[in-house]
Amino acid sequence: MKLTLTLATLATAAAAANQFNGFSYNPKQLKSGACPTVDTVRDDLSVLSKYTNQVRIYSVKDCNQGEPVLRAMENTDWKVQLGMWVSNVESVYEADRNELIRLAGVFDFKKHVSAVIVGNEAIYRKEQTSAQIAAKVRDTKAALTKIGLGSIPVTASETWPYYDPTLVAAVDYVNVHAFPFWEGTPIEGAQDKVFEHIYAIQKLAGSKKVVVGETGWPDAGGNYEAAVPSLANEQRYLKEFICRANLEKIDYIWFSAFDEAWKPVTNASDVETHWGVLKGDKTPKFSSPMYDCKGFVPNTKPSSSSSVSSSASSSASKTGSKASSTPSGHSSTDKSDNKSSDTNNNSDKSSDSQDKSDTSKNSAAWSPVGSGLSAVSIVASMAALAVSALI
Length: 391
What we know:
Order of helices and strands: HEHEHEHHEHEHEHEHEHHHH
Organism: Coemansia pectinata
GO molecular function: glucan endo-1,3-beta-D-glucosidase activity
Distance between the termini: 12 Å
Function: Glucanases play a role in cell expansion during growth, in cell-cell fusion during mating, and in spore release during sporulation. This enzyme may be involved in beta-glucan degradation. Active on laminarin and lichenan.
Catalytic activity: Hydrolysis of (1->3)-beta-D-glucosidic linkages in (1->3)-beta-D-glucans
Number of helices: 13
Shape: globular
GO cellular component, one term: fungal-type cell wall
């Protein structure tokens, strides 16, 4: 009996070490970029079910992908964060908004929709102002409330310099992107960099929950300054980020589920097709477990005198990037852009004056992710059970 419990503990720990709060997911077919069908989405979700029960998509209207994703989730415990694409063409938002409301009349949003995300780096791309995105967040929230779905959290996804008080005031929770790779950070400093950003955003957010809406590291492609894409670096960043996020009860969506061969390679470093934890053939890049938090000790919280607002105004005055404005995930920068703009693309900046009470406040609110207990808490609970059984 004691041996059985011990083996069960080890099995549970191994399973937990493959779990993610959620994945960024574009349901377009991985090689061709063809629009998804219910069957292709079901196949994707079947593969991803080993690792999570939640995905984030970027548009419900592009390829009409909202419908096959929600249809594939029927009669399951899958959750989706539904994206609404926003560009400098207002009809794009209107089309996504209308499709969102139509889908709400067809599917069980209360069961399957964990959040609605209005816009993805549109302020960074200089296609919208924070006031414009804030107005769209309020408009979407009002539309959902009108049909009895006001309990579904509504937010916007932005890079750290562009989350200002105007946008914070409008969202139900702050959904921010953090990519030390795009700051040219060497892997040795990536853990400090990303959490430095998170703490500053938490300070800016006050009582509102902060979720890392995208983070990750590519396993192949060209270097970006001191940031080197490699399989070892991707796994190291994955472990250090997830283990520390679990300890600090910070929710996140990992960028991304799969390598996507259809994506254009036109940005500063030819890495766009290499962000997945699974290959284009849907097999895992890493042996199981993907990460192991046993014995993990996070770095000391970094000290920083930088602030989000000052960084934002500094970056906003620089040359804008030639970022992709298609609903395909995070924006891709061009190497001709300055480093500050690339930092804006996929990072959140932060200060360290985050204290313990702020961290507790951040984790006490509702969670937009559906992953339940963190890997750390599951392993700790099962380990305690095994020890007690052996005594």
